[in-house]
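Open question from group meeting: does this chain pack into something compact, or does most of it stay loose? Before anyone orders reagents, we agreed to write out a predicted structure and look at it together. Recording both the input and the output here so the notebook holds the full record.
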Amino acid sequence: MPEVTDGFDVAREMGEAAKAVMDRLMADYETLTKDEVRELEDLAWDLQSQAARIRTLAVGALLAEAETSIEAINRETRRARKAIKDIGKVRQAIAIGAALLTVASAIATRNAAGLKPAVNTLKDVLKEPAKDLGKAVVKKVKG
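Structure tokens returned:
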């Protein structure tokens, strides 16, 4: 039987991701458009809100039904948090945050059918910035 507290790990990771989005907003504030500021603010608050909802859920049964694990979600959330912090393009950071919010929302609303596709979408979104980074490195090396 899942414990009432088994959502704490996922909630903590989502809360840290919300902090990464807000840190990105603060770091780049002077160069962002009004729309980018609004999108990053909304993402940060929405992620934090979903983290609070997840914190009180027993998510073990939901994850089992969705054929995913707390470890897998936490791993992808950590990757997303790092990408949001490090990625050069704000638009990509917003896309990663939005994909992460979809995962958080699927958990918070207990949407087992939507959770696995949401995690897979997050993985896909995280692959694109890595491809762009690889291209940029090759371009610099070839000079």
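Observations to bring back to the group:
The mean pLDDT is 84.
The chain has six helices and no strands.
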